Amino acid sequence: MMKTKAFTILEILVVLFIIGIIAIFAFPNISKWSEEREVRKEVNSLIDYLKEKKSEVDAGKYAISLIRVGNNNGGAWWTMSNQEWNRQMKVPAPAVTAQNNLARYNNKSILNHSRSCPGSYEGYNSAGTQYWTKQSTAFNSSEIIFTPNVHMCISKDALIHPFGSGETFKGIPGKSWVMICSTKNTSQSGSKRCHYNMSYKADYRYVIQITRGLDFVLYKYIKGQDKWVKQ
After folding, report:
1. Which of 3, 85, 109, 118 could hold 93 in an S-S bridge, CB 3.0 to 4.6 Å?
2. Which whole-number Å values give the CA distances from 136 to 77, 78, 133, 141, in the listed order?
3. C-alpha to C-alpha distance for 89 and 212, rounded to whole angstroms
């Protein structure tokens, strides 16, 4: 009859020690992988959200979708109806669409004259210069930080410029719309602030560019190489 050999206390301690050593070295990598995965998931969700709004505009559901991203539940989604779009594109335009100063805008509405995403959309809405409808399903996330808090417009055939002047990020050609950071290793203020003009080089950062034709281009910061890489 074979005898079963039991583990000694020393052998058990050795095994536990080895497991502990492996855990010490493996945990940081697992933690980094998990955080990177979470941030990328939120970034992909935002891009999918923007593409969904573009599909709705292309299908004629709305004339324009105005999407704002911001921290602390600062996201918002406004739409312009096709009927209001026709009012804005009429020439000569109704005087109120040019803030009663048609001569200044060549008899066009402010929107038609500038062909740019309006910065004062809420003020225009209140004054009747432009009519926008605030929708309920805005994009917000507690996992990421945006810089800057910014908005963009999606119009059919990209007739309206998607966003303003944009921001310059070292290592990324052209102008960009927004940078996205993780809440785990950056903040909204201080030395670890998520900001395009800060020297703090944190992991898990992404930048979204929006082309004039409404294509979405994503860049990821690679800390080990200190450079932005197009995804």
Report:
1. 109
2. 7, 9, 10, 15
3. 20
Taking the model in full, what pTM does it have? 0.84
Alpha carbon 191 to chain centroid, angstroms: 22
Helix (H, G, I), strand (E, B) or coil at 209: strand
Q: Which residue has the tokens 């709705």?
A: 56
CA distances, 200 to each of 64, 171, 186, 206 (Å): 37, 15, 9, 14
For 19-52, what is each residue's pLDDT tens digit? Answer: 767 656 554 555 666 788 899 999 999 999 999 9
- Lookup result for tokens 């190489």: 225
CA nearest 227: which of 173, 187, 189, 191? 173
Pairwise CA distance, residues 134 & 193, whole Å: 30
Q: How far apart are CA 131 and CA 149, in angstroms?
A: 23
Using only C-alpha atoms, the chain has a radius of gyration, in whole angstroms, of: 25
Please write the tens of the pLDDT for every residue from 196-221. 877 888 999 999 999 999 999 999 99
Residues in contact with 207: Cβ distance below 8 Å, sequence separation at least 6, in sequence order = 169, 172, 176, 178, 179, 180, 218, 219, 221, 228
At residue 101, the 3 state secondary structure works out as coil
CA distance 231 to 217: 8
Closest CA to 112 of 54, 169, 44, 160: 160
Name the token pair of 31. Answer: 């933690």
